[in-house]
Design goal:
This protein is an alpha/beta fold and 464 residues long. It has 13 helices and 18 strands. Bound molecules: flavin-adenine dinucleotide. The site of flavin-adenine dinucleotide (FAD) has 43 residues, from α1, α2, β3, β12 and β16.
Length: 464
């Protein structure tokens, strides 16, 4: 079958957000209100910040304002790979913070354990499956790179299992797979929207006041605290935490550090028992291939396959817009690549096709700071690996707002910021050259051209 025809019934909405458990929106804020801590943004960053603030001090009065609905953005439409890594993968961490990578990996595992413990404590059913992730080589040079990575991981005393072609294909069968490395414990699969909605309920249960359809439009100092304007009211807060991800930050100085990059995903119909048997996948791991333009794929609880990634699209001007959530040419490419990977699933259809904005920064992992004499903190730049790391980001924001020195605030990763992106049109041109260079490297055995090698030396990058 022409792979594009498999898309003909696909709804242009994120599969996860169609779940009948989607809660109704809470009322918008009308009038003035006061609180100790205001959290702006109702994705994982904001929700974790509000929840952990209450767990640290139940007497704290916490308000959360969300411009649309809790979990509607990246947090409700992602791939659901919840990784321990705080550094957008071991390789990126090794390149940037070799001296503290052991510590970062330990903190990352504690963070993942913390998420799991929170789900248990608050009775959140987010279809959590700690099945790990296999990074897959589909080209010979990627095999060498994966083996080098596995050796480096071993030097840090971390556990990773190398799979040869047959061992890998016994786990999940594709004629394109050459081998892989399996991180058995460092990644969990989760239903992204159920995680966001569960955190919302946990926040409400702890007494957080949440207002949806309440975009914050301005932030200014007010007495000893801050005043934040919303369409029909104002929040007067002692402290403010910003978890607004790829959306324009209320702090203009943060904007040059983040560009919205659109990432896209497809969801198939549920596999029959025969179709599932044809791929195996008894371990239900998350999978990703290791090209620069990579795919990530996984099973849902009802045995659909989510298949996403490959194109990472930046549009001139860096706006976040609803119309960017759909990109038929990317969906066609994804569908074609899906059937190349799993030809035995010929005839399977896609039920959903969607996209969303990723807050990409030039070092691929979050950065943090405070402004207004320590009254406002922010975390941004999670770059496509924020499902787990946003909880760590929330802890960092709360540490910074409390003014305490903690193990987290002493990290170089937390103290230093990435290089900002240049303004337009240089930004657009630079990202375009980088994207084409990465495609070229994928076609030529991974060879990085002069442009990419220069960016590597400068510690600059572009990724989804
Ligand atoms: C298609 C896709 C697939 C992905 N897959 C993965 C994956 O498998 N694993 C992984 O780790 N990461 C993945 N990510 C990234 C991950 O989803 C994000 O890193 C994470 O959800 C970020 O959470 P957040 O709370 O910072 O941002 P968001 O979920 O975007 O939340 C920010 C919220 O702030 C609100 N907001 C913004 N400005 C204002 C304002 N002024 N006033 C009030 N509210 C405001 C927005 O409405 C939004 O709800 C993926 C992302 C996409 C788009």
């Amino acid at each position: 079958m022409d792979s594009a025809r498999a898309l003909s019934d696909a709804r242009p909405t994120p599969f996860w957000l169609e779940d009948p458990g989607r809660p109704t929106a809470l009322p918008t804020l009308v009038g003035d209100t006061r609180c100790d801590l205001l959290v702006v943004g109702g994705g994982y960053s904001g929700l974790w910040t509000a929840l952990i603030a209450k767990e640290r001090d139940p007497s704290l009065d916490v308000v959360l304002v969300e411009g649309q609905e809790v979990g509607w953005a990246a947090s409700g439409r992602n791939g659901g790979f919840c990784a321990a890594s705080l550094t957008h993968g071991f390789g990126n961490g090794l390149q940037r913070w070799p001296a503290e990578l052991g510590q970062l990996e330990r903190l990352g595992v504690a963070n993942l354990d913390g998420i799991e413990a929170t789900l248990e404590r608050h009775g959140i059913d987010a279809e959590w499956e700690r099945t790990g992730e296999i990074d897959i080589a589909t080209q010979p040079h990627q095999l060498d790179e994966l083996h080098e990575m596995a050796e480096a991981v071993g030097r840090y005393g971390l556990d990773i299992t190398v799979l040869d072609r047959d061992e890998l294909r016994a786990q999940v069968d594709s004629p394109t797979f050459l081998g892989g490395v399996w991180d058995k414990d460092g990644v969990a699969m989760v239903h992204p929207a159920k995680l966001a909605w569960g955190l919302k309920q946990a926040c409400l249960d702890q007494g957080v006041r949440i207002h949806e359809h309440t975009p914050a439009s301005a932030l200014r100092e007010h007495g000893a605290g801050m005043a934040v304007r919303t369409p029909y009211g104002r929040v007067l807060a002692g402290k403010v935490a910003l978890g607004t991800n790829a959306f324009p930050s209320l702090l203009k100085r943060v904007r040059p550090y983040v560009v919205p990059v659109y990432d896209y995903a497809l969801m198939t119909e549920p596999l029959t028992a025969e179709q599932l048997a044809a791929v195996g996948w008894h371990g239900r791991q998350g999978l990703s291939d290791s090209a620069n333009k990579f795919h990530y794929f996984r099973l849902s609880a009802d045995n659909r396959i989510l298949w996403g990634g490959y194109d990472a699209v930046y549009r001139f001007g860096g706006h976040v817009r609803h119309e960017y959530d759909q990109r038929p040419e990317t969906f066609r490419t994804l569908a074609r690549n899906f059937f190349q990977c799993f030809p035995q699933l010929e005839g399977l259809r896609f039920t959903n096709a969607w996209g969303g904005a990723i807050d990409t920064c030039s070092r691929f992992s979050a950065f943090f700071d405070t402004v207004h004499q320590g009254r406002v903190a922010y975390a941004a730049g999670f770059t496509g690996l924020g499902v787990g790391a946003t909880r760590f980001g929330a802890e960092v924001m709360l540490d910074l707002l409390s003014g305490e020195r903690t193990e987290r605030t002493e990290l170089e990763m937390v103290r230093r910021k990435p290089l900002p992106f240049p303004p337009e049109p240089v930004r657009w041109a630079g990202i375009g050259i980088t994207t084409r260079s990465l495609e070229h490297a994928d076609r030529t055995g991974g060879r990085r051209n002069l442009w990419l090698r220069t960016l590597d030396r400068m510690g600059l990058g572009f990724d989804s």
